[in-house]
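Notes, p. 3: input format for complexes.
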Amino acid sequence: MQKLVSVVTKDEIAKGISEVAREISSDYADGEVVLIGVLKGAFIFLSDLARLISIPVFIDFIRVSSYNGGEQSSGKITVTQDIEMDIKDKDVIIVEDILDTGITLSFLVDHLKSFQPKSVKTCALINKTERRETNAQADYWCHLIEKGFLVGYGLDYAERYRDLPEIYCLK
Ligand code: IMP
Ligand code: MG
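Output follows (171 residues plus inosinic acid):
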């Protein structure tokens, strides 16, 4: 039987997101940003973040497959649904649920740069440090967590638990 241990509470999630939203709003003051959510994990984070950013935002999504439904990354990323918006000369922020090995985010930064945006930054709800394999970085992140497999608030294990309002570690 899998056990869920609370790691980030509702209040902590809300606080982390409002701080990052404030930072983004001030870094791009007088501008506008395209938020590109990485499906499916980032859908709840993106919807809360977008509503707290005070400058105009545009929203698009991209979908990649890498995890094959388990805990282990396959290391091979493919785009299964690409962006639809024209991001040429736009300020883009990739919105990810979790930065783990960094393989996904490195791939996505390179992929999106091929559309010639003005800039590409990265934003992750969780910055998980233990298994980092690339020099991928989150320019913005809400919670630094060393290790553990996390679920809830969009994050899944084999498609379960995305609907939980808080973040838990799966034991
Ligand atoms: P990376 O390429 O190893 O950085 O992995 C990034 C992707 O792996 C994230 O977008 C998640 O979908 C998934 N992932 C990594 N760690 C976890 C976790 O603890 N819980 C759920 N998904 C995770
Ligand atoms: Mg993901």
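The CA atoms of residues 102 and 136 lie 5 Å apart.
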